[in-house]
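Project standup — Tuesday

K.O.: blocked on the structure for the chain from last sprint. Re-posting the sequence here as requested.
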Amino acid sequence: MGLFDNLKTAVVKMLSGRNREEQESFAALRAHYVFEAEFCNVRSGNEKGQVENLVGYVRRNALTPLVEVASLEDLNSRILLSWCDRVAETDRVPHTDETVAAVYTREKEALHPLPAQPFEACRICTVKVSKMSTVTFDTNQYSVPCVYVGQTVWVKGFVDRVIVVAQNEVIATHSRCRGRQQMVLELDHYLEVLLKKPRAVRDARAMHDPRVPDVVRRVHAQMRARQHAEGDRLFVRFLLLHREIGMKRLCQALEEAERTRTYHYEGLHDLVMKLTGEAPDSPLDASTVPADLAAYCVQKVNVRMYDRLVHGGDGQ
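H.V.: unblocked you, prediction finished:
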């Protein structure tokens, strides 16, 4: 059983006494973890005073001075979990002489195991993929693979990420944007259409996203300067290799290309092959060359034969 304030994420309507009309998502949460909810009376803060005090206690002792973390998972695993374990070994349960850890060890024997799958605490909505291959959630646009343009998909909005699902398959995952009216684009989602319209890569918004490494744009500029539209097409074709080797390896190959001034597809592909160990680093050994290779030769063209044709076969 849990004691709850009348927060809007849990309560739709206040009824008589402690009765409440619950939000559908909150009722699903209770059903998933099998617990009962007991709501406080209106304007009765004394009924949950211990909860309010614990919030301040954690803030003062676990989060002071202000900690810096990379994500919510990092905060939970690296900071809060270790702090809770330490405090449980020393703090006493009110009105007893037992530590929190000792009481919890005994209490675990009476607890049911958690469900195999965690509850998806998210807001779900259905949207249609726009012509720009994006879906809109909370005013922000998130990209999906271009093959889904025009289709209706599910968007799951979590506190830290946005997941797009089509036909029971996750097709895109983005960190949730905290701004408004922003575009969050993944370059990979547009590679197939850029392969058909290679000149568009020059000004494609996804290409200039801050998350795209600078070396990608620099090498592309060199290939475009040397081979024009064909350079655009071959560079997009090269980018598709990241699905096989990962963006980190791909960028390593591009950095090596800058160092060796290798700005053509075949050279870039060879660099990737070497990084992945699929190509030899040195020329063929003499023992691996066929013995009769030297016998092969190309006969020189006798240009005098053309003179004979010009003169009706009489040329000398």
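K.O.: great, moving the ticket to review. Residues 214-239 form the longest helix (26 residues). The chain has a mean pLDDT of 87.
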